[in-house]
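Following up on my earlier message about magnesium ion. Here are the inputs again, as you asked, copied directly from the submission form:
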Amino acid sequence: MARVGPYVVTHTLGQGTFGKVKLAEHTESGIEYAIKILDKSDIKANELTVNVRREIAIMKALNHKNIVNLREVLSSRTKLYIVMDLVRGGELFEMIENRGELDEVLARKYFQQLIDGIDYCHRRGVCHRDLKPENLLVDENGVMKITDFGVSSMKGGSDLLFTACGTPYYCAPEIINGAEEGYSGVKIDAWSCGIILYLLLTGMLPFQHDDMTRLYELINACSVTYPSWMSADAKDLISKLLVKNPDRRYSLEQVKEHSWFRVDYETGDSLG
Ligand code: ADP
Ligand code: MG
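Thanks, got it. Here's what our run produced:
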């Protein structure tokens, strides 16, 4: 048990690529939070002073039901503590690992929430850049909360992010090819949303190979095999997202207009 400012930090909730996330209780109110602990030595000095501060300011200003709320950031000589709302339901990753693919109705519900949250952030100039089911949490009411948001610059830019993610199953071709310069992060997020949609519907990754060189080839070729039972509409949407050229890849605006997307998950009615 350790003290961090007004919090008592206890057990580990999750281990990410960089940070450890621990349970923290605010001693005065008794409210529980999740606290992400980052080692300052993992963050480039200039990133820390400029980018991280800006990113944190933006993060604090974000307020959306599908994004984990950032409460405050504390700093010690060696560490950075990011205090956020606690999401108790676990990772979407674990859900898919445990029960396999989701039915189309449930997959659509989570996908709509993902797009809602990301679209909100894009409109405010924030890109996630590390969307994957380990970073998508589900609360006790089945509401998806995107975490690890906007923290990508803390990870020291894309090269470090890339090394950290190790297996680039969710990385857009322009990142893998080191050509993301000049492209905006919004299309990088759109690519990852396509991968996540495929995973939600099939329980499998569209591009998978133990050999990294082969994996890169698969991603660059954008050759996706769809199970025969997948609806034509779902296939169509995924194929519009897993497009190599970011300029031709669907934007989130286009996703929101797609017929597969436009079904109300409460009523099953088409949103028209
Ligand atoms: P990293 O940047 O190192 O990947 P994350 O921010 O993704 O770190 O957090 C690592 C893990 O901690 C997540 O995959 C999740 O399991 C857990 N976690 C993160 N944020 C929360 C939260 N707000 N509530 C509960 N668990 C969380
Ligand atoms: Mg993470």
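One observation from looking it over: Confidence is low (pLDDT under 50) at residues 154-166. Hope that helps, and feel free to reply on this thread.
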